[in-house]
Amino acid sequence: MNRNTTENLTKLQFAQRIAAAFPGFLDDDEVSGADLVDWMSQHVAELKHVEDGTAYKQLRRRLPGLVNGSDVNGGDLVDWVNEAFGEQFRIVALEPRLYQGTWSHLFGPGRAETQCRIVVDVANDKLVAAQASDGLKWVDLSAADMNDLAASLFDANDVCDDPTEWDLSPIAELPEWASPREIDPNHAEIAAELDRLRSVAPDWHPETLRESAIDSFSMKWGMTRDEVQEIVDSFLAKSGAAHAAHVSIHEKRISNFEP
User: Over 90: is that where the pLDDT of 115 sits?
Assistant: First the structure.
């Protein structure tokens, strides 16, 4: 049945709907052209509201049969969807699979290995959270140290291939130490999404990243765009204020390693 809607959609929002029905678009796997024709026929009303009908007009010119009810080649439709929404498919998040454990890492020459506690998302090759022991307490890592640790986990050792081999255990949610502190519970998820978007689209302007995150979470959380925008903007404001405190913690940790 066609979903009747007057809601304007972004290309990312519609790509998320396509990917939910046809995950093969996310990993370059096979997609049934016949099934896609049936699905798209049922969602033409939604397509008309993607970017004020721009995508619908492109499809109508490319494959008029989908609009007038005549035969449509499924393979041609698959090709059009890949062309029209390929960039959006790149940034549709995979469902995370979280594991936690400890990891010993050498952060630099002349230092002893540092014990870290970590949370990784093995579905997306992502270091979600990490802290290092300074001998007395656990301290947060800088962005540079997070990147260095991530390289060890995913590039040098490929922990995502079999996380249990590295004594990592599956978890359903973030442990308390990795959860956001003194901020909205959604902020950790927003931080992870913005970080992922920056990795797949490093040239995007910050405002484009913000808008894409808002689009993504509007769909995921089932909230209005204005409600999600308020949460995202709150996170951006608070994360900026927290940056100076983070730098101070990091410098103190480094001083504890020096002889």
Answer: yes
Q: How far apart are the first and last CA of the chain?
A: 70
Please, which residues bridge with residue 169 across strands? 100
Give me the helix-helix angle, 206-221 and 11-21, nearest 10°.
50
DSSP string covering 174-198: --GGGS-SSS-TTHHHHHHHHHHHH
* Residue 77 CA to its chain's centroid (Å): 27
CA dist., res. 226 & res. 215, Å (int): 10
Compute the distance between CA of residue 2 and CA of residue 16 in angstroms, rounded to an integer.
17
pLDDT tens digits, one per residue of 159-168? 988 889 999 9
Domain ranges in the chain are 11-90, 94-176, 180-259
Distance CA 60, CA 54 (A): 10
pTM: 0.43
Q: Treating both helix axes as pointing N-terminal to C-terminal, what angle do 74-90 and 54-62 enclose, rounded to 10 degrees?
A: 150
18 within 8 A of 46, measured Cβ to Cβ = no
